[in-house]
Structure to design on (224 residues):
């Protein structure tokens, strides 16, 4: 299916194969046990693939400050009617090297602007909410700025929740990172790109969304 989608795209669109780096590291903790999302480690392998394609140097995984939050139980856990015998996951976060130079805010569906950390402390969050450690979860528009970078570089990531854990890696490489969750955002992507003078448009979605006609129509709705 992925190859079929890729072949239908214009030749100007660069596609990336994340399957191979994930498959070659399948013995590692790259997907959660109780949830459908990939872990930060899984997203890191995708990030290095992205950097290789873009021709930039990826950060070394040993450079990151890391913190672990225990007790995460995600969507698969709920699908088992909260089977108490299932072992909870850990959320391990990788903090961007730029540290305090990075700021973030997001806009809610109601239009409220909220400042929040790029990676939040979720130690007191409920067990099903700990994935919100990354970019404060799913919001229509998130804006990340890196004051350490002055070259005007920018990208927009069009995503659903699979993109949340990937986005923080980009913060070390762009002055401005815009994140659009197409499920909740209203607007036209082409107009946004022109207005913000965005250089890179990154479409990052989990393949299962193609089974959902509503999501496909929502993604198609922001094109143009």
């Amino acid at each position: 299916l992925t190859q079929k989608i890729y072949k239908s795209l214009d030749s100007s669109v660069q596609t990336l194969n994340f399957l191979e780096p994930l498959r070659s590291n399948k013995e590692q903790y790259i997907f959660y046990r109780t949830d459908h999302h990939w872990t930060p480690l899984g997203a890191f392998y995708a990030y290095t693939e992205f950097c290789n394609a873009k021709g930039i140097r990826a950060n070394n995984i040993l450079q990151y400050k890391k913190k672990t939050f225990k007790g995460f139980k995600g969507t698969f856990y709920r699908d088992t009617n909260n089977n108490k015998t299932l072992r909870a996951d850990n959320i391990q976060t990788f903090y961007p090297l730029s540290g305090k130079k990075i700021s973030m805010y997001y806009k809610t569906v109601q239009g409220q602007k909220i400042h929040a950390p790029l990676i939040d402390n979720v130690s007191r969050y409920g067990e099903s909410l700990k994935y919100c450690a990354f970019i404060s979860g799913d919001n229509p528009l998130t804006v990340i700025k890196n004051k350490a970078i002055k070259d005007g570089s920018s990208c927009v990531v069009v995503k659903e929740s699979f993109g949340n854990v990937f986005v923080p890696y980009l913060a070390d490489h762009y002055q401005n990172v815009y994140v659009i969750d197409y499920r909740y955002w209203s607007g036209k992507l082409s107009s946004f790109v022109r207005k913000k003078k965005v250089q890179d448009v990154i479409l990052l979605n989990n393949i299962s969304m193609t089974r959902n006609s509503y999501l496909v129509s929502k993604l198609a709705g922001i094109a143009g």
About this structure: Residues 186 and 222 are 7 Å apart (CA to CA).
